[in-house]
Design a protein that fits this description.
The chain is built from 2 helices and 4 strands; from the N terminus they run H-E-E-E-H-E. The protein is α+β, with helices and mostly antiparallel strands. Strands 3-2-1-4 form a 4-stranded mixed beta sheet, with helices on both faces. The chain is globular and about 30 Å long.
Length: 83
């Protein structure tokens, strides 16, 4: 997915392996977390520490929820109060 690769490039890191849980803010991809390795990439031009924490929390909540489901891309979408 080109948007994920752009995010990794912006963070000067390789795209993490495995299924990814992503965080969008107002339709823009700001962070991604590998469910397999726990590695994350985030946009250095936006405040993302809290987003990565939320992704980690969501990943811990969903681990084991649905065994056998792979190849999925989860999304945590945050929208501002104005939209």
């Amino acid at each position: 997915m080109p948007a994920l690769q752009r995010l990794a490039d912006r963070d000067s890191r390789r795209l993490p392996a495995g299924d990814l849980l992503v965080a969008e803010v107002a339709g823009e991809l700001h962070a991604a977390l590998s469910l397999a390795t726990g590695e994350s990439v985030a946009d250095p031009f936006h405040p993302t520490a809290a987003l990565v924490d939320l992704l980690r929390l969501r990943a811990s909540q969903s681990s084991g929820e649905r065994p056998g489901r792979t190849g999925r891309l989860g999304k945590l979408a945050l929208r501002s109060a104005e939209t």
